Amino acid sequence: MSERMAARLSAQEEQIEALSREIRRLQDGLTGGFLTCDPSLDALRAENETLRYRALHLRRSLREEQQLQERDQKTKKLINTQAKLHNVECFWFALCVSA
After folding, report:
1. From CA 94, how far away is CA 99, in angstroms rounded?
2. pTM assigned to the model
3. What are the coiled-coil residue ranges (predicted)?
């Protein structure tokens, strides 16, 4: 019985080794054989993350600025419309008074 268990354990250990080799082979294929992380790669990733963060905030700021400009343009149009309406009312009043 113990021989069967020892044989089974040995087979499982061999299977684990084979799977570990397969995992390493697949990882090497994905990383080009460079499993150790290069410090300059870490620095570039950190810089990339910082740039993405800055780009996100710049896009938000730009969108907010555009919304403010659109609101200002709508306000100016409203003021111009009100001024024109006032001019028409004054003209109408002048016509009514002079008639």
Report:
1. 9
2. 0.45
3. 2-29
Provide φ and ψ at 16, rounded to 5°: -60, -45
Mean local confidence (pLDDT), 84-96: 86
Tokens of 56: 């996100």
C-alpha to C-alpha distances, 91 to 13, 14, 77, 81, 94, nearest whole angstrom: 100, 100, 21, 15, 5
- 1: helix, strand or coil: coil
Q: Which of 71, 95, 66, 91 is nearest to 79 (CA)?
A: 71
CA terminus-to-terminus distance, the chain? 124
pLDDT digits (tens, 9 = 90+) for 29-64: 776 655 556 778 888 989 999 999 999 999 999 999
Distance, in Å, from the CA atom of 59 to the CA atom of 2, rounded to the nearest integer, reads: 69
Q: Show the tokens assigned to 90.
A: 């004054």
Q: Which amino acid is at 95?
A: L
